[in-house]
Hints:
Elements: H1 4-12, H2 21-31, H3 34-65, H4 85-92, H5 97-126, H6 133-141, H7 148-159, H8 165-170, H9 183-208, H10 212-220, H11 225-236, H12 238-253, H13 257-263, H14 272-280, H15 287-317
Helix pairs in contact: 3-15, 4-15, 5-9, 5-12, 7-9, 7-13, 9-12, 10-11, 12-15, 14-15
Amino acid sequence: MSDQPLIQADRAVPPPATTTRTGGRRRRLRLLSRTDRVVITLMVLVPLLLVTGFVWLPAAATVLLSGTNWDGIGPLNEIEFVGARNYDDVVNIYPPFVPAVQNNLLWLAALFVVATPFGMFLAVLLDKELRGSRFYQTALYLPVVLSLALIGFVWQLLYSRDQGLINAAFNSNVDWYGDSNVNIWAVLVASGWRHVGYIMLLYLAGLKGVDPSLREAAAVDGASETRTFFRVVFPVLRPINIIVLVVTVIESLRAFDLVWVVNKGRNGLELLSALVTQNVVGEASRIGFGSALATIMLVVSLVFITVYLATVMRENRE
């Protein structure tokens, strides 16, 4: 009889409950009020609709129109599909295409080889919390908040052949924006001036998140600051490096405002973005041909964006 109370006590104790992941989610959903559910739905649905309406649908329409000869005037039911003829014409019989590709590659090389390392160098200096670093950080980032069109007008004060500061200082008479041999270099300096501040801010944010113990351990091992940065800090900044790479490629492809302000992308300043605008909204109004140029830009951009997304997703899985 002494064992019976123990048996009854054992029967009174319920077995441990096993909470599944699905059950946990359902329980959390039950804790949300109806208002919370509506707010969360809107927060997801509204951005999704905006991105779909203003990004993906126009991109899909551009790809479809690139296979037509539509001029933007006739009705849609009269659009004639020409297949890949627009792409063949772009590559073979459109003279500005090759110079535009060369200028875009030159733009990418200048930003990637000169402006990006210089922006990283400035970020390393500002990360040391030197006296006046806040002022320098604000001054260097200021061009980023300006549009490229406004930057073109600002640098016009420096590049003007008759009243520009550069010609006055060196007693020269160079037409920086009009001479096709030098205007691409002039606009690259102006674009790099803006790009440096953007890259500086990205790397500065990344440097603030580096664990100080890594640098302390390298210093204990006797590593110099330069060796510590390239062997310890720089590998830690891999996510920032991928973002900087994608941003630099996109900046080189979408470079439009500056050259359009100077001479509408002609006379040595041909760029793919300017060619798209000239064909879509110009006098010719060749929507299909301009869409083929835009599709080429889209494909190049998607290659680098896909690499970035694949890298981020792989790091999240790890």
